Batch of 2 targets.
Target 1
Amino acid sequence: MKPHRRKRLGIILFIAFGLSVAVGLTLYALSQNINMFFTPTQVAEGEVPDGQHFRIGGMVKDGSIVREDGTLSVNFVTTDFASEVPIHYVGILPDLFREGQGIVAEGIVDDRGVFQASKVLAKHDENYMSPEVKAALDASGASAENHMSLGEGGGR
Amino acid sequence: MNRLMAFLPVAAFLILAVVMWRGLYLDSKELPSMLIDKPMPAFELTTVDDVSVNNELLPKEPFLLNVWGSYCLPCLVEHPTFMRLKESGEIPIVGVNYRDQQQLALNWLEDNGNPFEFSILDESGRFGIDLGVYGAPETYLVDSNGVIRYRHVSVLDEQVWREVFEPAIAELRSEEAAR
Amino acid sequence: MLPELGHFALILALCLCMLLGVLPLVGAAKGDLRFMNLARPLVAGIFVFICLAYVLLTYSFAVDDFSVSYVQQHSNSLLPLRYKLTAVWGGHEGSFLLWTFMLSGWMLTVAFYSRSMPIEFVARVLAVLGLLCVGYLLFLLATSNPFDRTVPLPPADGADLNSALQDFGFIVHPPTLYMGYVGFSVVFAFAMAALLSGRLDAAWARWCRPWANVAWGILTLGIALGSWWAYYELGWGGWWAWDPVENPPLITWLFGTALIHSLAVTEKRGIFKSWTVMLAILAFAGSLLGTFITRSGLLTSVHAFATDPERGIFILGILTLSIGGSLLLYAIRAPLLRGRFGFGILSREMLLLVNNLILVVAAASVFLGTLFPMVYQAITDDLISIGPPYFNAIFVPLMSLLVLVLAIGPISRWKKTSGMYLVKQLGLVAIASVILGVLLPLLLTFEFSLSATLAVALAVWIVLAAMKDVHNKIANKKTIAAGLRSLTFSYYGMQLAHLGVAVIVIGAALTTIYSQEKSVLLGPGERTSLGAYEFEFIGAEAISGQNFRGVEVTIQVYHDGEFFKELHPERRLYIASGTPSTEMAIDAGFLRDLFVTLGEERGNDAWSMTIYVKPFVRWVWLGALMMLFAGFISAADRRYRRVAKVESTSSYMQEGDKNNSALVGEAN
């Protein structure tokens, strides 16, 4: 083999090696960080493996929000109109959190069947046109960028 | 060999484009699906004209349940369709006045015309929550047994009427006639 | 009448764009000068009409013309004027008009500053941009016309601009980001013109570089502004969330960064040609993908019900035609581009290749993490999300590696560098970096932290290596001043950008490692401490503004027992829309930020709040600012303004290499 060919082969092998390590590590990291999403019905039907960290989405049930005095604890119930799951959260709720609002919470179900949320996000919805958020109507493009993340404010 | 390799990016991109095209139609399900094929929630409320209403007073034939509010601009867009349906008597329409103020609602009906058999007053939005309303306007197709059969979110204009509701209603009626 | 005029102006612009997309290309293919010379006047016309449309839409906002439904949806008579004027990009239609307007602006700039390039090339570049503009204008007119009127009757008042957007960040972030994004369309057009003509040589790279550098600088600023805005507006104390809408700009930036480095190699050495073109396509694809994702609702919106995916389909169509088309052209033309493979395992080319690989792998993994949930759902129908830990796990090691290589690059030599030379040059620098890396964090906190040590060491490594390189370059000059004068603008630009990286590394790492936060419930007169600071809650009072009502809270901050300053976080309720919003109180500082966000009242006048102390967080944006200047400084280099001798056909395709040999010797 000519020297410059050998050099070229060396570089190609080096690149191939580097890339395969990178791909392997990336896929490993990906597999370690998948958060599943479940609905209250799926949770009620026991589809969630014990101790799994996951996200749950539903509406905040009307009249279910109970704030503990003197602390940052909040209890509420999320519902998909078929099943309900109680949620407990310590911290500051996002601006748009309220009864009847769609929310997504991240966390784990404890022994008592209460979802211990580490994060609560209020979902903006483009088509949610109740008087409160009709301004959020059709906010996509430039605004969607922050619009969406803003909906996910708080809850850290 | 090199020449074929050069086509790899195009191929990869085309696969990606197909995936993204599929992705456009995915349903993210993060909000609960509502009460399709379930009976309407029980209610005991008044209409905007202060008449008591409950489930018994709903039409005993297929009807539309339209969620509206005086603050809701898209409701004005679909309003002419409902007025036309009212005039032609094709299907009865019941309104749900959602998170509005009674006086504003009455003024709105006065100004724009009233296509509804009656409008259920839901100032607190509690009935809307039972119904799973995201916001006005929404329109439900309910059968003669008070079971919700179809839900349409956002404006119901003539096009939606022709393409979605007319066929759905025809099917529902023939299904009920066969029973 | 005026909105209709705006609509009409867009239609005229579309007609001109169609001409621009065809005639100069035909002219360039046939060598017909008359057709090629049409490109510049057509661009001027397009710019005038799109600008007119943009101004008219802004005017409709300014005069509260709520009969225009876009204005009605995104403005309100109570809205302060500065937001009325900027609410133009508060929603999909207007922001896309801004996007198109930016493109026409870039086109005009290219038409102006392209005297040094042959007309066939300019004609092709402008025609490619014209074709893109056709796609954008068709999209605007067919699916998202901002000038549509509300029928049947004009509403009395508007629905108001989303309260979350009523902020300075909203005024500056979208235009900057778009300008950067769209700037990469220009580089893309350069690449396409090169493929079309078959002329891809060092001269091409030299024409291309200033545009790539400027677009890159502006995009950097755009991303940084977004991050800064998110930081003070979202109130969770972070500056980057790996949000699906944040990622596409970052992907574009990573490809763009790889591109500006690869372009340097193409200019100096005449190699990496097809790779450079590929990166130009990828950076452009990243920018289009960004729009696609935010505008189609592909990843963000809640599609609990079938919304009309018409817009998404349309953008996907533009995406497929432009990217698919360019990749096809690439597949046909790129194999003809051959560079000589003349560099050693240890050489500047190799280091830049490693730089490119790292950046592309980083971009690909961000892309994977962003789109994976959608692909997963398409296959399994299960919903998943990919958390920030994934991105951090990939990004931190990759960027560390990149920074390690970054400092060696400028000091190493083209073609072949001996290992001994590098050790001699950088050995002391390496030792000094490790020592300072250990010492500096210790001086700061009196605690050893491995990650802080690594970060500081890497940053010091960049700074010292840059100083060493400058020293080498001016060592044989008479005076330091004469030495500094002898260095080129593009060299200064490069070093400034690299120093920017060092500053960002410090900011990102130290704020992540040393930030403190705590959520508390405080009644009047109650205190809590965090780090060296104590926070006393004084009380809350009602406030009102032009279009909102709210509550303002007073908090006194004490530093080491001494009164330091008052902070006033707010909670607002916007009257027109009824949306609540929290306003953080931030005491910004060069070395640390204090940051309070207000929660809610919890009885007995006690309020919940979260308090943060965030060291060095400003450095993240400071570094980005340095990169912005770096982009402009290097673009201002004299050699980019040199008028090329128009060599008719001598430098086509393979022969491009001849030119390079002359340039190899040139300093940076």
Target 2
Amino acid sequence: MTSAPAVEFQGIDKNFSGVPVLRAVTFSVAAGRTLGLVGENGAGKSTLMNILGGNLRSDHGRMVLAGQPYAPGHPTDASRRGVAFIHQDLNLFSNLTIAENIFLTSFPRLGGAPWIAQRRLHTRTTQLLHDVGLDLAPDTPVERLSTGECQLVEIARALSVDARLIILDEPTTSLSARETDALFALLRRLQAQGIALIYISHILEHVRQLCHDVVVLRDGAVVAQGTIATFSTAALISAMVGRSLTQLYPTRHGAATGEMALEVKAVSQPGIVRAIDFTVRRGEVVGMFGLMGAGRSELARILFGLEPHASGEISIAGQPLAHADARRRIEHGLAFVSDDRRHDGLCLHASIADNLALVSLRSHARGKFKLIDRTGWQRAISRIREAVRLTAKANDDQPVQTLSGGNQQKVALGKWLLMSPAVLILDEPTRGVDVGAKFDLYQLMLDLADRGSGLLVISSEIEELIGICDRILVMSQGEIRGNFRRTEFNRETLLTAALPRETQT
Amino acid sequence: MRPRPSSPGILVLRQAPLILFAAIVLLFGALAPKFLTADNAINVLIQAVPTAIVAVGMTFVLLTAGVDLSVGAIMFLGGAIAGKLLVGGQPLPLALGAILAVGVAFGALNAVFVTRLRIAPFIVTLALLFIGRGVALTITQTRAMNLPDSFLQLGATRIAGVPLPLMVLGAVVLTAQVVLMHTPFGRQIYAVGNHPANARRAGIRTQRILAAVYIICGFCAALGGILSLAQLGAVSPKFGEAYEFKAIAAAVLGGTSLFGGRGAVFPGTVLGAVLIQSIETGLVILNADPYAYPVVTAAVILIAVLVDSVRNTALSRLTQRRIRVDA
């Protein structure tokens, strides 16, 4: 290659209050190629990309963009130089239209006048939406779009500033398989136009599908780099975690007992789910597989009492409680870890201790005035922290939002440990979590089952369900379409059962 | 599978503010036929002008998820200073300029505290409410001050047959509507209200936007104050009191969210201000106990906010994504 790389990092160092986060990071990305940036949560990927995107400044080292020195002080500097950053939690405004989102800081104007040239806004947006293959009107409000469509709007925004380098952070975590395919096809078209891509993901399969080159970060340093073909997936994982992971899933010791933990009989809600029938016994780990939009999360919310259901019965530990609210269900031993930990699972601004104590707080109230027994509370928190293997670096009073995704999920799960629930429903428990933390989370789930909880694990990853479950239910179009025992586990069968049928009854 | 909300239930919910407005007008019309005359309608409209203008400024602030409690104090302080100037023999334009200057200065002060010192808007503007009123009470020595006739004439002037206050309101609403809906600045206000952190990441200068909305709100409060003084003809020690409540209520009645990012000046806020004035005028026509006014007004606002919250819950349920087709 003769032309200058799209971007070069030369010895980038970054400290956060004395703790080194990036150490002498050096690598380059070639124009028209895609570089996969992988590493565990907290390895420094986000920090590095925030430096590239102009959100942070490095302490030492320099960057060269298309042969020119590059030191952005603000995100606008980055976009002016043709660098676009598509964040994992998309950067769109739900109250504005597609066109307004794309041109928010670069509206076409009428001559020198301060107002927006609506017609030009419309035509330019139409063109960009056509380029990314999104068949929607430019004035559609963004709140009506699916996550996959939002992703395409973000890319359209990158194209609108004529980006030569696009950073994508975990773009596929909430996309369906079809949306992922469409996204990859678009990204390949962009590569062909000479645009360089940096692709961050924990889904190594996707990195392998899309990327030419790969850089592995561990503890803020580059530990491996080269063309993707030279790495096996196992080699990538061992570079990421710094040891070879012989096992991706912990060994299952316990087994289901005879006692019922959760019984669901003929639960229906028009337009959402129909005739849902299944059971989870104590000590059993039941998986629930389905494609995006199959109704799994909606069912979980109905089971937990957050959404209503028109008919059917739900019993927890033998107690029927069809129309009890979430609070009463918790008292009966039901626990729920939502797929949206930022909104439903955690109080992001509150401390680790407060989050962990949330569910069991009342059991620490002592005396006539129900004051909180601080020492007992503290002991309980340390016990959970140990049990979930929360990073030792974090203080109890540190806000949860400062933790990495994996550690946040450990807190969201950990808060239920003290009440040893009869039933624990987990919705996408390992989404956006790195390999090392995943293992800890699986271990924690199996430990809970061994101690007598019944688990319902909802996931879109067939592999992980096959890895940890005793039984897998398959859901599609709001119905249960299959119930497979461990001996019947097979990727193809599960996936076939999950595909929607043309005609509905 | 995109929700296509079209059922009559959803339509009713979406138009809740308008329906509430019609209900109030019809109720007063039934109780007092005089209420439904054209004369009364124009009277209500003119009376509503000060509240509407202050509420337009308030809408800018509410759209960023902020609040400005100092609007009534700005009106009072501006009026007090203008009164002193006029009593001292200064010309009317100077007095009007002084009022607007007080508004912009207070807005700028609010902006500095909110954007530079990062103090919560509620606290900053509450403090400025008391400071403003305190200073104004000192200036007026807590006595009412009569304004010269020239001031009252402002309210009575007609241009091409249209009363001046309505002209001013029209100009303010038109400008605000164009700014909010058709300028980059306006759309960025909505973005900041929707998600401030994302707005910063998207390259919007959020602090500048925030500063601007408080200054706009201060200016509108001062302008509303001038038009209110032109109707009253005097600066009493109670002038401008409870205007923050009326302005916020007008905006909320018109569908502006207190959480930012949602709402509009027209018809929303203007409709809200006219609704509040309709209630007051209606009660006057009915000869109701004056002490009952605030109770009735507050009750209607509470109902409106309740309807709004019920509506949002119901709308989100009705427009929920369907997973399967059931009869």
